[in-house]
Amino acid sequence: MLRNPIHLRLEKLDSWQHVIFMASLCERMYPNYHLFCTQTGFGEAAIYRRILDLVWETQVVKDAKVNFDLQLEKLEDCIPAADDFDFYGVYPAIDACVALSELLHSYLSGETLAHAVSVSETSIHTVAMLEMTEAEREMPDEELSALPAIEQEWDIQWEIFRLLAACENRDLDLIKGLRADLREAGISNIGINLQQ
What we know:
- The chain has helices at residues 6-9, 15-40, 45-60, 68-76, 90-109, 113-135, 141-145, 148-165, 172-185.
- It is an all-alpha fold.
- It has one domain: YP_001051499.1 fold like (Up-down Bundle), CATH 1.20.1590.10.
- Helix 2 packs antiparallel against helix 3 (45-60), helix 2 (15-40) packs antiparallel against helix 5 and helix 2 packs across helix 8 (148-165).
- InterPro entries: DUF416, YP001051499.1-like_dom_sf.
């Protein structure tokens, strides 16, 4: 699996920063799931959206109460099975769900670092899978690492990391701004654009 120094650096962040990092990457994977739901009629993009919104809410609203066990159950009902669909779009949709599931598990376990690394890897995996699907062949990590799409994904992850790392304390304006920017952009890690 593609490794990056960011995975070591994440250790330096607090758990709230890990949560925002994961939520940001899920925000960037959401358009992949949304498009899949639109194309197939499977799942409910609105449920994914609501769960992700609840996560953001817990980070900006003091004492926001969310039943994450229940949210996880709702999400699990929305995850497509790869065998049920014979087109590529199912894979980015599954990855988006896996990432959000990791985020919910971090709330349930109270352990955020491992889940943050996992969400980072899931997002890069989505990009790598698209590159190999388009090239119609497997590629070794060295070759994948040199691809512009992979470099761009790492750059965006680093950008989010740096914004968070610069915060001494939980910065509500930064959190709200990051969320607004990602939602307004509406562009996924593989270039799916919700605005089009």
